[in-house]
Design brief:
The protein has helices spanning about 20-30, 30-35, 50-55, 65-75, 100-115, 120-130, 140-160, 175-180, 205-209, and strands at about 10, 15. The protein has about 210 residues and is mainly α. A two-stranded antiparallel ribbon has the order 1-2. A hairpin with a 2-residue loop joins strand 1 and strand 2.
Length: about 210
């Protein structure tokens, strides 16, 4: 393993002593996931059977069934992809800006979420949408949602005070992740095959690696 080091960062209240090492260790141990899932992000123009396969085991374990896959693929054909750039970044999505990137991302999410059939969870949608817009949609499974829950509630309260139209929301996970993680990005000097990895998903090795 390459010898790397970087200053500690705080992630949702948890201090990671050497984040660069944690990232490199994850990349070394999960090369298949990086190759067959992460490296495929932003390479799809629509949700396809191939994209759905990339979310399944052994790489990401989405457990999207054949019936659910058909529904997601069909729903994707009418999704407002054109309103959210392929290069869109979570750090640019400000929930206080009405009609901005955050609202457009939320509308894209809601296109799937509001009409979802029974059995399709946040984790399944996030693993699909990450491959379509990797810089914007973070992966959120049950572990990560539990990890960020307190920060997401705090973010919802803060945003709701400043933008009453969002006051009905009890959690804002995207905003919590942006505030507690993306802003604390460590200066990792990895290069070569690692440099292609979409920039917003380096949180995964720090929290789960």
């Amino acid at each position: 393993m390459a010898v790397v080091s970087s200053p500690p960062v705080a992630v949702a209240g948890r201090v990671v002593g050497n984040p660069a090492y944690a990232v490199v260790r994850y990349l070394e141990q999960h090369g298949g996931t990086i190759t067959h899932y992460d490296f495929r992000a932003a390479t799809f123009g629509q949700v396809t059977p191939d994209l759905i396969r990339a979310t399944r085991s052994p790489w990401m374990g989405s457990r999207i069934s054949a019936e659910q896959a058909t529904w997601i693929i069909n729903r994707g054909t009418t999704a407002p992809w054109s309103t959210v750039s392929l290069e869109a970044q979570l750090k640019e999505a400000d929930p206080l800006v009405a009609g901005g990137l955050y609202d457009r991302a939320a509308a894209l999410w809601e296109h799937f979420w509001a009409a979802r059939p029974t059995g399709i969870s946040t984790a399944k949608f996030s693993k699909v949408l990450y491959l379509m817009r990797p810089g914007l949609f973070p992966i959120l499974d049950s572990y990560l949602m539990k990890f960020y829950r307190a920060a997401a509630r705090e973010a919802a309260c803060e945003v709701g005070r400043q933008r009453p139209s969002l006051g009905r929301l009890t959690t804002l996970y995207w905003e919590a992740i942006d505030k507690t993680f993306c802003a604390a990005k460590p200066p990792c000097r990895c290069s070569g095959r690692y440099s292609r990895r979409p920039q917003c998903q380096w949180r995964r090795p720090l929290l789960k690696g």
